[in-house]
Specification:
The complex is a heterodimer of chains A (150) and B (202). Chain A is α+β, with helices and mostly antiparallel strands and 150 residues long. Chain A contains five helices and four strands, in the order αββββαααα. Chain A is globular and about 45 Å long. Chain B is an alpha/beta fold and 202 residues long. In chain B, strands 1-2-3-4-5-6 form a six-stranded mixed β-sheet, covered by helices on one side. The chains are: A alpha+beta (150), B alpha/beta (202). At the A-B interface, α1, β1, β2, β3 and β4 of A face α4, β6, α6, α7 and β7 of B.
Chain lengths: 150, 202
């Protein structure tokens, strides 16, 4: 865990730039997305919080990819595609170098935010130790997923 | 948004409110509920303003004070004890405080900050069948198994939905400064030492 935090910090410092924080669901996965007549609905908002812009998207993709080793090599491409689409919507330039920088910044912030989501959990029914061990395991797997891009 | 005295009143045929909601709070809840439930479910809202009062709440439910005729019961905060009630009613939704906000502020906390609607599914319900979702909202997205299925799902509006959420409250910050604040939260948390010991033992 300490190693992962160190790597994240080092990479963020290397690519440092402004990032966007916004409201984040915090536990976005397919089980929490319900289609309706007027679009997608997200449910289970108990981990709502202020996080980096891409936290939910990365969480959604990561929870899917970590269990599917044969697709690991596609994670980076899929995430980059989402960056490009979001940048288009925001009228942000999407030069390759910019996208690469965003990839490194947001995926490494995601690592830190996943740990924080556990340690900052104030719920009386939440077992932090077990939660943190799960997070450590998850981030270890996530590292395998994103290594194809890194 | 101050809470009024506990009361039980019917606003319309489809929406019932129990206790502690003034007009402003009610309007918010009604708007939230309408937004999330496009189906023709009868919706009830239950504003429990006393954490320790759930037993009273349970008693009232036995006395049918809680409008059981409604299809959806909305409660205001999270607690594991609500699970029992949720299970008995088969459905319970939460509006207002997130669990974190509630625990942090305690029962006398900041009650006027109603900022999000949330669905809470009792763990005891079968997570595979997701029967609660199917009853109320329709089926959740099927978890894609193939990569092309994942891509299809990502293409049906996920990014715009995320964008919508971010747009509610966004701010720019320097990544390194934000990372430092995150790292501080991690290393100064009590659980880190415990984890360290657990890892050494394993």
């Amino acid at each position: 865990m300490i190693e992962q935090i160190g790597v994240a910090k080092e990479t963020i410092d290397k690519f440092d730039d402004h990032v966007l924080l916004g409201l984040s669901h915090g536990d976005l996965k397919f089980e929490h997305i319900v289609p309706s007549d007027d679009g997608l609905k997200f449910i289970d908002w108990e981990t709502l919080g202020l996080r980096s812009m891409m936290f939910d998207v990365i969480n959604l993709l990561a929870t899917w990819y970590v269990r599917r080793a044969k697709y690991h090599h596609l994670f980076g491409h899929d995430l980059m595609e989402i960056f490009v689409n979001l940048n288009k919507e925001r009228n942000i330039r999407f030069a390759a170098e910019e996208i690469k920088k965003q990839f490194h910044l947001y995926t490494n912030l995601f690592v830190l935010e996943r740990y924080v989501r556990v340690v900052a959990n104030k719920s009386i029914s939440f077992n932090k130790e077990a939660g943190l061990l799960r997070a450590i395991n998850f981030i270890d797997q996530f590292t395998l997923v994103r290594k194809y891009y890194v | 948004m101050d809470l009024v005295n506990p009361s039980y009143f019917q606003i319309s045929d489809s929406l019932l409110i129990i206790s502690g909601l003034n007009a402003e709070a009610f309007d918010y809840i009604k708007a939230s509920a309408s937004k999330y439930f496009s189906c023709n479910q009868k919706i009830s809202a239950l504003q429990d303003y006393d954490y320790l009062g759930y037993r009273d709440l349970d008693l009232r439910s036995q006395g049918l004070t809680i409008p059981l005729q409604a299809d959806v019961l909305i409660a205001s905060n999270f607690h594991r004890d609500f699970k029992a009630i949720a299970f008995s009613k088969k459905r319970i939704y939460s509006v207002g405080h997130t669990r974190m906000n509630y625990v942090e502020n305690g029962s006398g906390g900041d009650k006027h900050e109603i900022y999000e609607f949330s669905a809470y599914v009792p763990e005891i319900l079968d997570p595979i069948s997701n029967c609660l979702y199917q009853e109320l909202l329709g089926c959740p997205l099927a978890i894609p198994q193939k990569h092309y299925q994942l891509k299809n799902l990502l293409g049906i509006g996920l990014t715009s939905k995320v964008e919508e959420l971010i747009g509610l409250h966004s701010q720019k910050t320097l990544a390194s400064e934000y990372a430092n604040s995150l790292i501080d939260q991690i290393i100064y948390s009590e659980v880190i030492n415990k984890i360290d010991e657990a890892l050494k033992k394993s």
